[in-house]
Amino acid sequence: MTASPWLALPEGRPDPALARRLRAAHEALVTSSAGPPRQVRSVVWESWRRSLGNGVDPDGVAPPVDLLDDDLEAYRAAHPLAPVLPVIRRLLVEDAEDDRMIVAVTDAAGRMLWVEGDPRLRSRAAGMNFVEGARWAEDVAGTNAPGTALALDHAVQFYGGEHYRRPVQSWSCSAAPVHSPVTGELLGAIDVTGGDHVASPQMLTLVRATAAAVEAELRWLHRADLETRPAPPPAAARPAPRLEVLGRDRARLVLPSGPVQLSLRHSELLLLLAEAAAAGEGRTAEQLAAECHRGDTAGVTVRAELSRLRRLVGAHLIGSRPYRLLGRLDTDLDRVRRLLDLGAVADALERYPGAVLPRSTAPGVAAARERLAHRLRRAVLTGRRPELLLRYSRLPEARADVAVWQACREVLPPGSARQAAVAAHLGRLRRGDLAT
């Protein structure tokens, strides 16, 4: 059986030969931007590359401390994970000193809110600012279990030299993200840090089980709160977010707070999730990778993009495990489809300014684009209404469509100026000398 890519030491034992290979690979990357060697896990290599791209210095200063004293206390007291600390302490912290490990709980930005466990290890870790209030997000602290678990929204562990920053390479760590069971929002991460034994498969299983127990406790607390809370007055219905992809190189997401212009990759991912939602489904990272990229692309790449997309549009819109829409999202693509279902071809054509994300080469987007274009073309050709055929012929996708221009010529009055213009265009098409 193939070992999980998220496991650092599948056999559960330290590997001096692996440690030497990791040091060599890390040195090659930071000094010459070498390509990925086979002995480095893809999740490690991709994180190293992101750390390098974010300007993280492998020998630089320790991560910054964002919160101190009263500010830290106030922020922790209000954080959603504060009520479930007893669960984490019961499952991890009570045995942490005997097990020679540190237990840390972060917020969604990677800031350490609680750091507990073996006091001797905590004293050592303080030398690299692994302390309460410090920010260990991957983009500032490099490859590390809590920061990378948050960046990829997935449980992960790192063994020694798999860390990007050299001061951290004497430690191993396992971490898992924690989500709101109500909204799917990423709340933070639970991390265990210590010696080589922390990179064992059993430790990652324990951390993931603790995260699951925390989410179950949060769900129970939410239900208990609902039972005792008075019913709120009915709220005014808010308009659903709207995704516009027709005739646009990049999608525009219209939220109640205002429009957001998405990158092409985020446009593709959100459209693919909307298409899955229309079928009542979600998608794994691997499924989205296949629909979004030609060739063999790792799911970790898609997880990183989705993590950035969730931060941009809000975790209330996109859930994980599997990735899915958490609420209604209207798309102009689906609006045209509904009109075609009703036989309202004129209205559908009026609301179709062009193809679905015409610059996208993502296989899933291309399939949605082709399905809608085929349906609209067939409806216009079948109806044979002159005004609709002429309007359709002005679309970029119809410019070289011989069947469309032939139908236009057949339905227009013989000898009319429009028919003459259509016939001239059709002639150029058939001679192959139409300028592109």
From TrEMBL:
<protein>
    <recommendedName>
        <fullName>GAF domain-containing protein</fullName>
    </recommendedName>
</protein>
<feature type="domain" description="GAF">
    <location>
        <begin position="87"/>
        <end position="218"/>
    </location>
</feature>
<dbReference type="InterPro" id="IPR003018">
    <property type="entry name" value="GAF"/>
</dbReference>
<dbReference type="InterPro" id="IPR029016">
    <property type="entry name" value="GAF-like_dom_sf"/>
</dbReference>
<dbReference type="Pfam" id="PF01590">
    <property type="entry name" value="GAF"/>
</dbReference>
